[in-house]
Specification:
By secondary structure, this protein is of the alpha/beta class. The protein has one domain: Rossmann fold (3-Layer(aba) Sandwich), CATH 3.40.50. The chain is 43% helix and 18% strand. It contains 5 helices and 6 strands; from the N terminus they run βαβαβαβαβαβ. The longest helix has 20 residues. The radius of gyration is 14 Å and the shape is globular. It starts with a strand and ends in an 8-residue tail after the last strand.
Length: 161
């Protein structure tokens, strides 16, 4: 476990209000984690929560150049069904990231979950937006808990943090 590393996981579909809340909240949360010694912020590059986190890290990095944005992408064709706008954002983020790796060359059933395990296995913190107890985000958070990561859930559901 890397105490200086945090990975992101969260829902892909977010309401306008959720996006506005997260845009306000994320920079401060990233600063708090950096104050605790986190230097590496890692994302699987998905639309939704991941993307908001990536932009927040890039913004905070302007003031705190010691932090890094790493992308551990689940496959090279992750963006195949995305809109042109989402693809342009993705390319922009990849260009600005400090490091980009692919956890698999090709898509296969389960590559997204494998990618989340890859991130959790290399992190000490998980910054998430988990509102449900099912789905990929819930799986990633449960897995992170089994690995002993500190979980920061910005949705704060079910009394969890």
């Amino acid at each position: 476990m890397q105490r200086n590393t945090c990975f992101f996981t969260g829902h892909r579909v977010l309401s306008r209000d959720e996006r506005a809340f997260l845009r306000r909240k994320l920079p401060g949360e990233i600063e708090k984690l950096a104050d605790q010694g986190v230097k590496y912020f890692c994302s699987a590059g998905a639309v939704g929560f991941d993307r908001l986190c990536e932009f927040a890290v890039l913004a905070v990095r302007e003031k705190r150049p010691e932090i890094r944005l790493y992308l551990a992408l689940p496959c090279k064709t992750q963006d195949i069904k995305w809109t042109e706008y989402e693809k342009k954002e993705y390319e922009y983020i990849k260009f600005r990231a400090d490091k980009v790796i692919y956890t698999a060359e090709e898509y296969y059933k389960g590559c997204m979950l494998d990618g989340n395990r890859f991130l959790a296995d290399r992190s000490g913190f998980c910054l998430c937006y988990r509102k449900r107890s099912y789905g990929g985000t819930a799986y990633a958070v449960r897995y992170a808990k089994t690995r002993g990561l500190v979980i920061v859930n910005l949705a704060r559901t079910n009394g969890e943090s």
